[in-house]
Amino acid sequence: MNLFLLNVTVHVLTAMLWVGGMMFLSVVVVPAMRHMEPPQRARLFSVVGRRFRWVGWASIGLLIVTGLINLHYHGVGWAQLTSSDFWHTTFGFRLAVKGMLVGAMLILSALHDFVLGPGASARSAEGAQRPAGRRLASWLARANLVLGILVIAVAVELAR
Question: What is the mean pLDDT of the chain?
């Protein structure tokens, strides 16, 4: 396997881990925990959330590195990225859309992982009923999953 194919494989597997992990949490873990008592559910979700936070941010770092390497293999260098002509091409436009979606995911992930999520978990563990912060954290996670699916769709278009 050549280095380009290895890099693309790592990029795709890492995207699967990050977006697939978000999907697993929302489709399997959250519904499975609904029958638990609130303090037990809060503790478990806190542990799972902290563990996935590490996986998610490591994935983000690896996706950025492998994505930049993929651009290099596509012949896109600093000169193209700083040229307005590049961004008016189909590839450049799709790359810009992907970049904006990824940027939005980074912002939502940071808000969810470092602001709303930990605060909501702490209040849930104290016995608070459905705090607004927990609801907002839940919606941010769902929005991030949708953005992740859109990133994958744009990435497929880029690869074509």
Answer: 89
